[in-house]
Amino acid sequence: MAGWMVAVPKGDLTPRERGAIAFAGVAPDLDGLPLLLDKINAYFGRDSFYYETWHHVLAHNLGAAILFSAVVAALARRGHRRTVAALAFLSVHLHLFFDLLGSQGADGSQWPIPYLSPFSQAWQLTWSGQWRFNSWQNTTIIALLLVATLWAAWKYGRSPVGLVSAKGDAAFVRTLRARFGEP
Length: 183
Description:
- This protein has helices at about 1-5, 15-25, 35-45, 50-55, 60-75, 80-100, 135-155, 165-180, and strands spanning about 115, 125.
- By secondary structure, the protein is mostly helical.
- It has one domain.
- It is globular.
């Protein structure tokens, strides 16, 4: 939802461009896919630690932010590419910021964010006050982002529903506006 909130106020973007910016905001978690390999290996009785090894390493860094921004920019219309790239870059960084704030494991473990990777391993971002992933702080942030997303749908006439259905989005916005009035 944070990535969506970065994209939604920009009225001249297409739903595809807004969706790409929102996707950039969750794209760093693609490095969590090795969990599937660990599960498959466990099914066959083999140990593997791909998730622990690669999550917050492969895509939680400056290099990935640049890559995701470039991919999203390539999908944008000519004349919008710089704006889309900049918003995607911001969206990725919101993800990294939220992970830095609140992705501590249940056992108190932290995943440092190797921010300068793959260019350098010199700067590993951590915060000693990091919240547990299932903390009240994270729940509160999610609730606030949900409220902000609903508000933005009411105000701008666009919601994430539009990523899958223009008619569904129009109906959703109409319902919000019928309930809370016109902006």
